[in-house]
Design goal:
Blueprint (H helix, E strand, L loop, with lengths): L1 H53 L7 H26 L2
């Protein structure tokens, strides 16, 4: 009789404990995600502060970059025109 009582209560006890375990895991995952979110936000704030600090100190290098791009474009055009006949074979 006692054995039968415990055998019939096993499914309910298992379900109850699995539900509790799922709740604990859900809470732990939520806390972990919240922690990662805070870390990512802190990282982004630090990166923005670094960029804000560096931006006024740097010189405008746009003309040098545009000149380098023009040189590369000229080189690319000359390389393409010199290899056209060789690629036709």
């Amino acid at each position: 009789m006692v054995n039968r009582h415990f055998v019939h209560s096993i499914p309910w006890e298992v379900e109850k404990h699995l539900h509790r375990l799922a709740g604990q895991w859900s809470q732990a995952i939520g806390e972990s995600v919240d922690g990662l979110t805070r870390q990512a936000q802190q990282f982004m704030c630090e990166e923005l502060a670094t960029i804000d600090g560096l931006a006024p100190q740097t010189q405008d290098q746009r003309p040098a970059v545009e000149e380098a791009l023009a040189v590369l474009d000229e080189f690319n055009q000359s390389a393409q025109s010199s290899h056209r006949c060789e690629n036709i074979r």
